[in-house]
Aspartokinase (Streptococcus caledonicus), 449 residues
Amino acid sequence: MKVIKFGGSSLASAEQLKKVLEIVKSDSNRRFVVVSAPGKRSSEDTKVTDALIKYYKHYTANQDIVIDQEWIIDRYKSIIDGLALSSTILDEISTAIKHLATFPKENNDFLYDTFLAAGEDNNAKLIAEYFRKEGLNARYIHPKQAGLIVTSEPGNARILPSSYDKLEALREQDEILIIPGFFGVTIDNQICTFSRGGSDITGSIIAAGVKADLYENFTDVDGIFAAHPGVVEQPHSIKELTYREMRELAYAGFSVLHDEALIPAYRGKIPLVIKNTNNPSHPGTRIVLEHSGTSSPVVGISGDDDFVSINISKYLMNREVGFGRKVLQILEDLNIRFEHMPTGIDDMSIVLRGRELTPIKEQEILTQLRHLEVDELSIERDLSIIMIVGENMKSHVGVTATATRSLSEAGINLMMISQGSSEVSVMFVVKTESEKKAIRALYDAFFKN
Ligand code: ASP
């Protein structure tokens, strides 16, 4: 039994939906179909979800909403026409979109979420209708009926663990269920969405809930590339990744799947595959608990910018009891998250995401650190983190040597190096101006040479 999720670009037009139908039809194990709202047809296009945000803003600001309503309804209409569906479904969608502008504006914490969820909800109805017309035994199901009950955190819902029992009962259905992604219902019956891009989360929850054998996530790329295609020319797509490796790569810039989407599938021990709607015969990337055979020591290389390092030096730091705690307490009091903390004998660097360090917080940190009588103190911006990732690194000698040799040959100055004890990744900090060059050098070293 498989749960299959399609992203917005796979559902953006009638042509795309025809591909989706073929994919679902080609495997009778594909029993649960989770869908996004229609996405962009081209880079200049607008996602239906973004159009709904505009509609919400105009509605709550008491501005004209007719243009917004018409644009959204027209978007569905062009898909409905392209698939030669009956006008009944168009009427139903049109009524639902207009109905949004009847909900109370005041004291309604869930109004924004209700608007946004309409993109997925109406698309699921449309797709169920299309599948039925094409002879599939398919049915739309609302997350409430499915049992997808979430916390009352608008825009950031989380699944309530009690949902899983009800979701498991869906296994007994013999129809193909079409489930709108991105939102659930609170105990008080309010529509509440996950964070943006959250249809991936729904797919993962349903896969864990129905104890699927596989969660297939269809997007518009041939899986996860071993490096960013905007940096490395035509990188290969990774055949198999562990959840752990995926998490490490996602940390530093890989964003094929929503971060939170991995958790339910991981906990439910459900393998996941990322595939391409436009190239379904490509095997894509499988995300598994453990590698099935031997895999190369490095599976992927990621990089992310906007990091800052707070560099502290104090003579005999190592002998001072509690120094580290005092430094971290300053960060905690200012509600600042830190990412890494490489140390030397008398120095300590704290690496943060740049957005954490507002100018006011920066001043405050400097003042408070000076109270700790440090000898040197500096803040360095424009840093990038580069990670080479692979669980099999631990059984290979010389991985870091290969990496550092290639970086030195490319003339790149390494500012910090860090490897966690689990040896799933090695992290290098470089100046952002050399980030791309460094990623290319590493890609060549591990995958080309
Ligand atoms: N439609 C929602 C968004 O654009 C959720 C999704 O597509 O996953 O964020």
Observations:
- The two ends are 41 Å apart (CA to CA).
